[in-house]
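Single Protein Entry

Contents — chain, fold
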Amino acid sequence: MVSILDQKIVFLFPGQGAQYPGMALDLLETGSGKVKELFDLASEIMGRDMRTVLGDAEALKRGDLAQPAITLANLAAAALLEERGIRPEVCAGHSLGEYAALQRAGVFSVEDCFKLVKCRGKAMAAAAERLREGPGGSAQAAGMAAVIGLAPEQVEALIDEWKAAGEMAELYAANFNSPRQTVVSGTAGALDRAEELFKAAGARRVLRLPVAGPFHSPLIAGALEEFGPVLEATVFHDPRIPVYSNVTGTRIRTGAEAKKLARAQITGPVRWTCEEEAIQGTGIQAALETGPGKTLQGLWRDSPGPQPCYPAGTAADIAALC
């Protein structure tokens, strides 16, 4: 067996929803100086001890805290891997995870990364709250649902068909996760009606997700009012290693392109299936889910590529790889 140290590796960083209480605390307990620096910096920027946040289940339900917490867990896992001699030749991240990918590719500093996700989390949470407080109150609550059993192109085509017929104006394809799973965003009414229509079209299940808003859709565009100026003020450099975009599914070539795509990612869908296909064609030999959970490993298994994807979010995972 070829050692993981001798293989061409892609770091895949998970996004919001991957968090769990206690994540990354074991990485800190390894005594890694780089991991401690990340915890200290994140705590300084957030104005609170991130060790406490990472251990608090209720805090991790809040988008304004969960996004920096997940990013800290992602970057801490990457730091420990790199200390152990495992470095990426390619990076990518799902939704929020793209910020860790951009940082590890050298697009912006660690400090700017935490500042960006702090503002992004706050702005998205506020935009979702405004939707809940709009006319009709909870009746107008918006969210997301996973459509299982239909191909991504089928889901997209059905939504286009319904909109052309004057229906489902507030339903959007949000995450093209795998050949068997697509997540949609919409208002409560649109999601209720979509469940009926998707099942009638052959979907096995339509599962409402426990998220605070209709992310990656135009319904959350209000987040850009707060996040846009912070994004524009941040310095973006050209990537030092290949990094891939959720918006296009292709490689990001310049810092200017990365900034433009980071803005578009707020309201645009995550084209993860395209991203996986592009990455698998780069000659990588293995993928590491560099952060909490196992979601990306499952999505990777559903893709047609032959390369394995290993867990790399805990101290035990990383020890096993080494």
Observations:
- The first strand starts at residue 9 and ends at 13.
- Residues 82 and 164 are 50 Å apart (CA to CA).
- Residues 4-130+219-321 form a domain with the Malonyl-Coenzyme A Acyl Carrier Protein; domain 2 fold (CATH 3.40.366.10).
